[in-house]
Write a structure and sequence with these properties.
Elements lengths: L2 H15 L17 E4 L3 H13 L3 E7 L6 H5 L2 E6 L10 H11 L3 E3 L9 H9 L3 E2 L4 H8 L1 H10 L7 E6 L7 H8 L5 E5 L8 E4 L2 H19 L4 E5 L5 E9 L5 E13 L2 E7 L6 H17 L4 E9 L5 E7 L6 H8 L3 H10 L15 E8 L1 E2 L6 E2 L2 E2 L2 E3 L7 E5 L6 E2 L6 E9 L2 H14 L1 E3 L5 H9 L1 H5 L6 H5 L11 H27 L12 E8 L2 E10 L2 E6 L2 E7 L7 E6 L2 E10 L4 E6 L2 E9 H7 L13 E3 L4 E6 L6 E2 L4 E7 L2 E6 L4 E6 L6 E2 L4 E5 L1
Parallel strand pairs: 1-2, 1-4, 2-3, 4-5
Antiparallel strand pairs: 6-9, 7-8, 7-9, 10-11, 10-13, 11-12, 12-15, 13-14, 15-22, 16-17, 18-21, 19-23, 20-22, 24-25, 24-31, 25-26, 26-27, 27-28, 28-29, 29-30, 30-31, 32-39, 33-35, 33-38, 34-37, 35-36, 37-39
Length: about 700
């Protein structure tokens, strides 16, 4: 066999027989590059470096000054600082990155996703200096990067497209009559989005003229901030759709494949939260039709590399082209899990000029993979507003089988306002969807993250919700399931007893340990053993009476007249509490506890505050004065860390309920803050350009 034939057979075997992660097989006789620079940061930079190491390729990391000790910098063979923290001065600084390429002698650049990954000028600069861009050529980037042009190309390639206005809408204040004619003819709702956009930025849904004008303003501002291009397009909004995308892979020799689909319907603010492959919704014929249209589009722009064609799919399985991402997609790991292919390796091979190793019939669907995007976000605020801080404790659940964690952080890492708040991509694989879901549930329970607020409570509720389990999902899943916002896990009678009993057992364990330690310091006396305690526990506004008995390693807790048995490893030094509660194995986490009996437990994904007291202490506690909560109707505080973009009021102004007061930008997303009542502005404590923290006072009303 020739080297090419051997490599093809070897890779096909891996694709057909691999059932975890992706192929680790590589043919060392296949020469690619000696050194690759990764023009990115975080988890995707680490992901590319792993494949470079597997292929025997030296890697170069670039970093901002605040990222000098980041994980991707430590993993790479070389590292170059390209500027200060702001992205436009570092990771988007083409000149600095080109200098790093020259200094290190890198032969190729992998852009990851985001930043410069779809920047045609960057690709042109690389080509001019004879450096390979590990991605498509500039023609494909330009054609697919512009949503208006890409839609016209898709139409010509006989790809199903969404009805819309075939032109650019530039300014909200001077909307042309023909635009409003389109809006009114098929009727609202419509989708307003940035022509050069992606990642959910610069997108708004409008249900009436007022929302259309407001949406144009915010979309154009976000588009200008994120992409340097404020052009907008408008098209019919398909209500209650699924978001399903097709992974494509093409070489420079005219060969192109579709590597099955990814279901990406669980979203907040048009950004994906949970993805899975394959989709529960597609049948074989629809999958093939979508795959073939995706390949038609790729061939129409002479695409070469890994790319993703995104579709909206309605309830009748009609599908419409949304956009094509000319880069490696964030959620690529789930495709790697079910096909056994290393997509980064394939991109490197294609960039070097090799033909694809596979035929369409070689591409399998082996098992099921699910990805949860773990973010440093507060899920109780609009399903996730950014949180910043330092990871004081961090432990990935890699002790579990068939779990993959793509991350670029470690214990001690900082989550800052400068970059995306993603902590990791948590991926689980199983022979069936039920198996993958069960593993995801365990993985989320075993994931230890301290120091920042995170979205694990939301992720766990999503994957255990009956609608998600049954596959009854759409892009409206979150607002439909949680119309009043996410409130965390809602305890039922039995789970409430389990939580209280666990807190009581932990409290007694801590008390007994304290007695043992302190007892060693006293004058020797006869030990008094106690195995019965009367306690009270506060959970929310309710007070619960409990009686606890201990026999060996088992606590029997009577909660409100019902007995609960709790046993397990009560290691007070460990963040994880593996317990057996009434015969059911549970993984809890003790987030904090103090001498006053306050215990914060992560149970079923959600953090619960329980205060456990002795019966006497509970009686005395009733005499303690209550803290009066702050009147928030007359003040406006920042709900997240970010930058003040605009302040729309001044002292003395009268504002109406719902009127915009100021705009805060966090992670390139703009958030309008409004008045909760009609009132007069007393004072303004912020100005445009200022950086504010979560909870900072912005405006006071009379």
């Amino acid at each position: 066999l020739s080297v090419l034939q051997y490599a093809a057979l070897q890779s096909r075997w891996c694709a057909l027989h691999s059932n975890v992660k992706y192929s680790t097989t590589y043919n060392p006789n296949e020469k690619t590059f000696d050194k690759i620079l990764i023009a990115n940061r975080g988890e995707i930079a680490c992901r590319v470096i792993k494949t470079c190491k597997k292929m025997g390729i030296q890697s170069v990391a670039v970093h901002s000054d605040v990222d000098s000790t980041a994980v991707h910098v430590k993993m790479a063979d070389e590292a170059v600082c390209v500027g200060p923290a702001p992205t436009n001065k570092s990771y988007l600084n083409i000149e600095a990155i080109m200098d790093a390429i020259r200094t290190t002698g890198a032969q190729a650049v992998h852009p990851g996703y985001g930043f410069l990954s779809e920047n045609k000028e960057f690709a042109k600069r690389l080509a001019a200096e004879g450096v390979a861009f590990i991605g498509p050529d500039t023609h494909a980037i330009q054609a697919m990067g512009d949503k208006i042009e890409s839609k016209l190309i898709a139409k010509a390639a006989k790809v199903n497209t969404i009805p819309g206005y075939d032109g650019v809408v530039k300014k909200c204040a001077c909307l042309t009559d023909d635009v409003f004619l389109f809006v009114l003819s098929p009727g609202y709702p419509v989708m307003i989005k940035a022509s050069a956009g992606g990642g959910g930025k610069g997108m708004r849904i409008a249900w009436n003229d007022e929302e259309a004008r407001e949406g144009f303003r915010f979309s154009s501002q976000e588009a200008a901030s994120s992409f340097g291009d404020d052009r907008l397009l408008i098209e019919k909004y398909i209500d209650n759709p699924r978001h399903i995308e097709i992974q494509v892979l093409a070489d420079k020799h005219g060969n192109a494949l579709w590597l099955n689909e990814r279901e990406c319907s669980i979203q907040r603010r048009n950004q994906k939260v949970v993805e899975e492959a394959p989709s529960t919704f597609l049948d074989t014929d629809t999958r093939r039709a979508m795959g073939e249209q995706a390949v038609q589009l790729a061939k129409a722009v002479q695409y070469s590399s890994a790319g993703t064609v995104e579709f909206l799919v309605d309830s009748k399985k009609n599908f419409y082209f949304l956009e094509m991402n000319t880069r490696l997609q964030v959620e690529h790991p789930i495709t790697e899990c079910i096909t056994g292919l290393d997509l980064v390796e394939q991109m490197i091979r294609v960039a070097k000029g090799y033909q694809l190793q596979h035929k369409q019939e070689d591409i399998p669907i082996n098992g099921w993979a699910i990805e949860s995007r773990v973010y440093a976000e507060d899920p109780y605020k609009s399903f996730g507003l950014p949180s910043i801080g330092r990871l004081s404790q961090y432990q990935e659940p890699l002790n579990l089988s068939n779990v993959r964690v793509d991350s670029g952080i470690q214990e001690g890492s900082d989550i800052s306002i400068y970059y995306d708040p993603m902590i990791s991509k948590l991926v689980t694989y199983g022979a069936t969807r039920a198996e993958a879901l069960s593993r995801m549930e365990d993985a989320l329970d075993n994931y230890v993250i301290r120091g920042v607020t995170h979205n694990i409570p939301l992720l766990r509720e999503i994957i255990t919700h009956p609608r998600f389990i049954s596959g009854d999902i759409s892009t409206n899943f979150l607002p439909e399931v949680y119309p009043d916002g996410f409130k965390g896990h809602q305890l039922e009678v039995n789970t409430r007893r389990e939580l209280l009993a666990s807190a009581a057992a932990l409290y007694i364990t801590a008390q007994l340990r304290s007695q043992n330690v302190l007892g060693n310091l006293r004058v020797s006396s006869t030990a008094v053993k106690c195995n019965h305690w009367e306690l009270c526990a506060e959970l929310g506004d309710a007070l619960h009476s409990m009686e606890v008995t201990k026999s060996g390693n088992v606590y029997t807790v009577e909660v409100d007249g019902e007995k609960v048995e709790v046993s397990g490893q009560f290691n007070l030094a460990s963040p994880l509490l593996p317990l057996t509660i009434n015969g059911t194995d549970r993984m809890l986490q003790c987030l904090s506890r103090d001498a006053s009996g306050k215990i914060v437990l992560q149970y079923l994904g959600t953090s619960f505050k329980v205060r456990v007291l002795s019966k006497l202490a509970a009686e005395l506690n009733s005499y303690m004065p209550e803290k009066v909560p702050e009147d928030t109707s007359s003040i406006l505080r920042s709900p997240m860390p970010g930058t003040v973009v605009a302040v729309s009021v001044k002292p003395g102004d009268t504002v109406a309920e719902g009127q915009e007061i100021c705009v805060i930008e966090a992670m390139k997303m703009q958030n309008s803050l409004t008045a909760v009542k009609q009132a007069k502005v007393k004072s303004v404590h912020c100005k445009p350009g200022e950086t504010v923290g979560e909870g900072d006072l912005l405006v006071e009303l009379e």
